[in-house]
Amino acid sequence: xxxxxxxxxxxxxxxxxxxxxxxxxxxxxxxxxxxxxxxxxxxxxxxxxxxxxxxxxxxxxxxxxxxxxxxxxxxxxxxxxxxxxxxxxxxxxxxxxxxxxxxxxxxxxxxxxxxxxxxxxxxxxxxxxxxxxxxxxxxxxxxxxxxxxxxxxxxxxxxxxxxxxxxxxxxxxxxxxxxxxxxxxxxxxxxxxxxxxxxxxxxxxxxxxxxxxxxxxxxxxxxxxx
Length: 226
Fold this sequence. Notes:
By secondary structure, the protein is an alpha/beta fold. It is about 25% helix and about 25% strand. The chain has a nine-stranded mixed beta sheet with strand order 5-4-3-2-6-1-7-9-8, covered by helices on one side.
């Protein structure tokens, strides 16, 4: 468990196919696969959201999926939506800009002022965390200090997942396994951008639970950093 004065406890949660893919193909919405999740697993996803102070996805996921990131299938409070977007390039009609839950957009200092102003006009908080790109460790610190975030989940794509793991900011991983194989060399998988040269560089996981939720296998891991 991290020191709660410096960053939140972070759970990465995702659905994946049997061959580790997140979507049918590059650029396709993950919702096309998520519709095959068992109803019980959809409830689990929203139950998990309700236990968290914040939920984070990358800006590319917002552009492709146009997610709401709210709690809808159970009674519970929706978490703060956190979207890193270095250049503040979110679509103006994105669902996360609606007032149904609080939203924080993290940008870099190079983000164009007119884009930042347009986001703020939507009623969301925009914070600067980094010079050229969003500094994720700094963002985690700001979420604790400025918003009281103690527990956060990520429902990100492969790029955000990789950067969060690379910075050692993920504590747990929960995977919903879908009984499909989609293949494809460039089809996005759980983690992208990972280039390692030796076994010593692998990010190791410790399995702590596995169970059926409806018809879906769910596995839970602690992340074990070297």
